[in-house]
Amino acid sequence: TNISIMDCANLGTIQGDLDTCGGIVGYNNSIIRLCRNSGIVSGAALRIGGIAGYNQYQIQTSYSNGFLSGSSECIGGIVGYHANNLIRNCYNTGSLDGQGQYAGGIAGISTGGQIQNCYNTGLISGSAASSGGIAGLLGSASSISQCYFLDQMERGVGSGIDSAVRCAEPLLYA
Question: Among 18, 47, 129, 159, which lies 20 to 30 A Cα-Cα from 106?
Answer without folding.
Answer: 18
